[in-house]
Amino acid sequence: MIVKLGVPSKGRLMEKTFEWFAERGVILSRTGAEREYSGAVDGIDGVELVLLSASEIPRELAAGRIHLGVTGSDLVRDKLANWDSKVIELAPMGFGHADLIIAVPKAWVDVDTLDDLDAAAAAFRARHGFRLRIATKYHHLVREFLKANGVADYQLVDSQGATEGTVKNLTAEAVADITSTGDTLRANHLKVLSCDPIHRSQATLFKSRTAHWTDETRATLVTLKEMLGLGD
Amino acid sequence: MPRVDIAKADVKAEAARLKARFEAQGAQAMEMDILLPAEVLLDLYGEDIRARAYVTHDPEQGEMMLRPDFTVPMVQAHMSDGAEPARYTYAGEVFRKQEDVPTRANEYIQVGFEVFDGSSPADADAEVFAAFAEALSDYDLRASTGDIGILMAAVRGLKTTERRRNALLRHIWRPRRFRALMTRFSARGTELRQQNLDRVKANLKEAEAPFIGLRTQTEIDTRIKALEEDAAEPPISDGEIALMNDILSLKETLPNVLSNLRDIAVDLPEISEAVSLLGRRTEALASRGVDVDHLDFEASYGRTSMEYYDGFVFGFYAEGRPDLPPVATGGRYDALTSVLGQGRSIPAVGGVIRPGLMLALNATGKGEA
């Protein structure tokens, strides 16, 4: 039996993941033709590299089709209900930092806090006849956050990209999105609410609770964790 | 406690028995759709319903929901062709996502009994509660009751601005936000209210940002004016805050609560009418054979789980089985009928029972039926 390790298949997230493992003596690499998604693992036996879209890694971990996986902690929390019953965080990896935040037009001088947002939403609904729209692709995380903070009279509208543009395009009144520098938000005349972010995300190594573990794969995991400097 | 799987056929048979029982008490049997337009439900319950209900999509009709409860189709059916007074019963599946407690059923059968009768709300409340208590009398259940109407009357009686009262009423069903608002409007919140205003004024001094989106300058100006007025407004008195806290923490047997509330009404006379309704309901319950001397009443009961219940609320719980959801729940939902009826309100009270849980209790030996 082999330990399957899921890693983002492209871009900076893949490169940084490869670097992180290489610094700890586990050499991950892509093999075959440039566009072929296959990989190799050197430095440890019994581990297979599976290249996947970062957004599919939570699902694969939850289904137990991979034993370990690297993805953003935001994706795991948003895509998996009761995520901590399905996966375990083995190690925050120190890159891919991004905050999931709520932003509103900078012209809303009266709105800086969740209190303000709630009050603005109530008045907005009374005046416009529908709930204040927040554009996001992080439906689960945002809804749970707003519920926990008692914000009412809003609705989430789905936005899979260019979310910062939705307010100007009149398809939303506010946005909930990932930001690292805030430049895109500022360029689109939006400001971040002053509360703590909904979630501070970073690339994280997860272990599946549902994958099939044998004595052999468990032994491999122990070796791997030692190499990665992760205590039990 | 092991989870007991009960055959669906048995649950349906039990549901039919309960429905026949309610029919024998004068209720008309109703059938309702399983696939419902999502819009009405979303507008009523907000985004939270998406976390609880299964949403699907029809190419013609847009978003649809698998029936998360019977209340909305029930009220709509009554409003379109019901005569008053009316009593209804129904039985069928409801569908709920169970993200928080994945072991709970996401498809189960409910049997309902609903009374649309405005002649005597106290008596209608008692009729519904007694009907459920009798249907469940063979089971070892604990009943909890409450009355959202008392809380709403207390808020309406606060000697403060209409705006503050409305803000509190809006968050009756969100206890955490309700408490935060109480603090902000109290003497302890005076500084906070001034800080909020100062912050907005500081924002005004910054470079102007271009206006984007549907929310207008007028709406922003209106809110700034509201913040100004609220900062200048005296706080809700410590006395009234203390009375509100007394009401919120009431948890006793019904006669003791009634006596406490009558004392509170001396200082907060605006709740007198709601308290006398509670008194009449208590008498009506007693005259229907309910042991009111040992019936629990909790002023905050039903605030988190039952938005739109705005009067009497109740639930029946299996003793010693905190793992199980309530076997039956119900209450008065006049506010919901007024939202669905666009101003036309119909006094309505009712509840649902879960025959599957009754059978599960039998199977684990907790019931004697």
From TrEMBL, chain A:
The keyword Acetylation does not apply. GO terms for biological process: L-histidine biosynthetic process. It catalyses: 1-(5-phospho-beta-D-ribosyl)-ATP + diphosphate = 5-phospho-alpha-D-ribose 1-diphosphate + ATP. One of its GO terms (cellular component) is cytoplasm. InterPro entries: ATP_PRibTrfase_cat (IPR013820), ATP_PRibTrfase_HisG (IPR001348). It holds the Pfam family HisG. One of its GO terms (molecular function) is ATP phosphoribosyltransferase activity. The keyword Amino-acid biosynthesis applies. Pathway: Amino-acid biosynthesis; L-histidine biosynthesis; L-histidine from 5-phospho-alpha-D-ribose 1-diphosphate: step 1/9. Its EC number is 2.4.2.17. Coiled coil: none annotated. Residues 54-216 form the ATP phosphoribosyltransferase catalytic domain. Catalyzes the condensation of ATP and 5-phosphoribose 1-diphosphate to form N'-(5'-phosphoribosyl)-ATP (PR-ATP). Has a crucial role in the pathway because the rate of histidine biosynthesis seems to be controlled primarily by regulation of HisG enzymatic activity. This is ATP phosphoribosyltransferase. The lineage of its organism: Bacteria, Pseudomonadati, Pseudomonadota, Alphaproteobacteria, Rhodobacterales.
UniProtKB/TrEMBL annotation, chain B:
GO terms for cellular component: cytoplasm. Signal peptide: none annotated. Residues 18-233 form the Aminoacyl-transfer RNA synthetases class-II family profile domain. It comes from the Bacteria. Homodimer. PANTHER family: HISTIDINE--TRNA LIGASE, MITOCHONDRIAL-RELATED, HISTIDYL-TRNA SYNTHETASE. This is Histidine--tRNA ligase.
